[in-house]
Amino acid sequence: MKFGLEMFPTDYAIAVTELGRAAEDSGMESLWFPEHTHIPASRRSPWPGGAELPREYAHTLDPFAALGAVAAVTKTLRLGTGICLVVERDPITLAKEVATVDHLSGGRFLFGIGGGWNLEEMENHGTDPRQRWRILRERILAMKEIWTKDDAEFHGEHVNFDPIWSWPKPVQKPHPPIVIGGDGPHTLQRVVEYGDEWMPIPGRSREPLDEKIARLNTMAAARGRGPIPVSLFGVRADPAQIERYAVAGVSRLVFALPAAPGDVVLPLVQRFAAAVKAAAV
Fold first, then answer.
1. Residue 270's pLDDT is what?
2. How remote is the C-alpha of 46 from its chain's centroid?
3. pTM for the full model?
4. Is 42 within 8 Å of 72 (Cβ atoms)?
5. Where do the H-state alpha helices sit in 105-163?
6. Percent of the chain with pLDDT over 90
7. 3-class DSSP state for residue 179?
8. For residue 233, what is the enclosing H or E element?
9. Four-CA torsion 20, 25, 26, 28, nearest 10 degrees
10. Rg of the Cα atoms in the chain
11. For residue 58, how many C-alpha atoms fall within 13 Å in the half-sphere facing its CB?
């Protein structure tokens, strides 16, 4: 089993370079940064986590710039978006950003993606929230063309461009793993169609996790695919729980860190590392 950390990188939290070095030194496999380009002041869309939106949502650094900085001070740590809001980004530009971080890191990028929850945030980017999953699908398919072909073109309902040239291509072939977040009624279908890995949050589904993983792999086999890796995002530092997740078939656990200064974050990194060592996995 692999283990990672996730934190909102902000303008007031521990420096991302310091966190990256600490994560790698502690033996963690990966570091994940989420994103919000902004938070609309209307606050019309309710935050799924509760009544009050935490401060870090409006203070988040750009994940690609932040991960590029981490890449420069680490050697083995994998670098992930957790998650990237694809529906708020131009696909040609986003394909370049993904390929650039993968290039600069020597092939260590993990492309975590999702549909998002803040409807007016999407609308500010010109995205109709009712169409966001269709838009996300086409943008991912279009980016795959850009990453894998010298003369790339795509013609869809929401993405349309004639042949283009775009380098660098990703170091990882055919492209960095596309890790689809979420646990909705159609998530597994999306993972099997255009994803490489699945990353849900614990406790969001009534179906037992081991059964859902088995169903995912049955669906994958029906399309001629092998088992699909599963990561859990935002787990606790509990050795017994870590062992249960390993039995269920989870391949990566990602521990959540607060967006806080180093004197708060660094002891937690060591606590998570100790829990990993204590678990029989």
1. 97
2. 22
3. 0.96
4. no
5. 119-124, 132-148
6. 93
7. strand
8. strand 231-235
9. 60
10. 18
11. 10
